[in-house]
Design brief:
203 residues, 7 helices, alpha/beta
């Protein structure tokens, strides 16, 4: 898929990007597929599926920020368990004006997102270690497919100062969400199944 094809998928969901950013997504897709042949970075291999289930799904956080009135400009955002850069890198391409920290403990994935930084001509910091061993705190902490909600909440809240966002699938435990003080944001984007982002404002 080229930049125009990617732009069509993202545009149908309401994300209209300039040509230079669509080119970045095209490079991201190309390099992810190339690296994936050797390093097994993602189980999703079809191009359009990657665009929808990785790129578009990551951008659903931007819509969530907008709807909740989250001030992200100039903030430090940690993507916890970033893997091949999701959701942090698509957010950086789209929103741009924040400081991104990608936390990932698997060496080959760290190498990929470090390589990607130069390839896309964007800036972020890769913290190649387990999240439990990351010192310091960030204004916003986000995670996607990191683990069981109840188990990762303490880790996420230990890293965040202002907001925590945990991206989950179609099934959520409403009782657990309420008991831990979280709310569920329902994602409704064309091209994606309905999913939820669990969120909490800490300050």
């Amino acid at each position: 898929m080229g930049p125009e094809d990617i732009g069509k998928v993202l545009g149908e969901a309401g994300f209209r990007l300039p040509a230079e950013d669509l080119q970045r997504f095209a490079i991201y897709l190309e390099e992810l597929i190339r690296w994936n042949r050797v390093h097994n970075l993602t189980s999703i291999e079809k191009e359009e599926e990657i665009v929808r289930r990785h790129f578009l799904d990551s951008l659903s956080l931007a819509r969530c920020f907008e709807d909740l009135g989250v001030e992200w400009r100039g903030k430090d955002l940690a993507d916890v368990g970033s893997g091949a850069g999701f959701p942090g890198v698509p957010l950086k391409i789209y929103l741009r004006d924040f400081n991104l920290f990608l936390i990932e403990s698997v060496g080959k994935k760290c190498s990929f997102i470090e390589f990607l930084k130069a390839k896309l001509k964007l800036d972020w910091k890769v913290l190649c270690r387990r999240a439990e061993r990351v010192g310091g705190r960030f204004h916003i902490a986000v995670s996607r497919a990191l683990g069981k909600f109840e188990e990762i909440v303490p880790l996420m809240e230990n890293l965040a100062e202002e907001w925590v966002f945990i991206m989950k699938g179609k099934e959520i435990n409403e009782e657990a969400i309420r008991s831990l003080g979280y709310e569920a944001y329902e994602v409704n984007l064309k091209g994606l199944p309905r999913t939820y982002i669990l969120w909490k404002r800490l300050s």
